[in-house]
Amino acid sequence: MNIYETIDYQGMKINIFYDEDYDMPNAWDNPDAFLCSDYRGLHVDSESISASECRDAANEGKWFLNGFYIFPVSIYDHSGISLSLGSSRGWDYTNGHAFVCVRRTKGWSWAKAKAEKIADGVIDEWNCALEGDVYGFVAEDAEGNEIESCWGFYGTEGREEAVSEAKDAIVSELEERTRIANEEFAAALHQHLHARKAQIRAHAPLYARTAFAY
Fold first, then answer.
1. Spatial CB neighbours of 129, under 8 Å, sequence gap ≥ 6
2. 112-131 and 155-201 are packed helices; what angle lies between their axes, rounded to 10 degrees?
C-alpha cells in the first residue's frame, strides 16, 4: 500500500493510505442521484434512465425526465478522463454522452438549484474515483498494534473525514485502556487492603506488613 501521510496523535499513529481497492460510484447503487454514460471510455449503465434517453430529451430541450432532473456532463479525455457539469467546448471535450440524473424529491431536491448541487457532488465523487483520489486509514498504538482501520474516503473532504475518524478511534481506545487500568488498580487495591486487614488482625509487626505496589 502506498502511504499518503503519517500523523502522530496522543502517543499513537495514524497512517493515511491511498485506497487501491475502491469501488466506482455506480457500484453504490444509488437510485436517486447517479451518472449514466454511453461514452466509449466511460460506459455507465443505470436501470432507471439510459444515457440515450437523456440525450433524446436534451435534444428536445427537456431537462426533466421520468421524475428526474437531468444534467448534461462534459467528458474531458486526455491522459485520463475527467468530468464537469454542463457543456464544454474544446478538442478533447465530448458532450452528449453522459448525464447526471437527480430524482425530484420534496425536502431533498425539489428545487432545480438544489438538484444541481447534488449533481455537482456526484461529479466530484466520480472525478475522485477516476483520478484515484481515494483514501483509507490505519490507526496504531505505540507498539504498532492496529486499533482501527477504514477505507473508501473520496477526495480532500473524505481524507479529512478519515483523519477525524482515526482520531476518534484513538480517543476511544485510550478511554477504554484507562477504564481497564482503573478497574485493575481498584481490584489490586482491594486485594491489598484485604491482605493488610488480615495481617492487622494477626498482629503482624509493621516491618512484616506488605506495602501496596501496582
1. 22, 23, 24, 25, 154
2. 80
| CB 140 within 8 Å of CB 85 | no
pTM over 0.85: no
What would the pLDDT profile of 97-135 be if each residue is shown by its tens digit? Answer: 999 999 999 989 999 999 999 999 999 999 999 999 999
Residue where the block lists cell 447534488: 118
Going by the DSSP 8-state scheme, the letter that residue 40 receives in this structure is T
Q: Which amino acid is at 33?
A: A
Number of Cβ atoms within 10 Å of the Cβ of 62: 11
Helix (H) or strand (E) holding 33: strand 33-39
The SS3 of residue 145 is: coil
pLDDT in tens, 125-145: 999 999 999 999 999 999 999
Domain boundaries, the chain: 1-20+132-214, 25-130
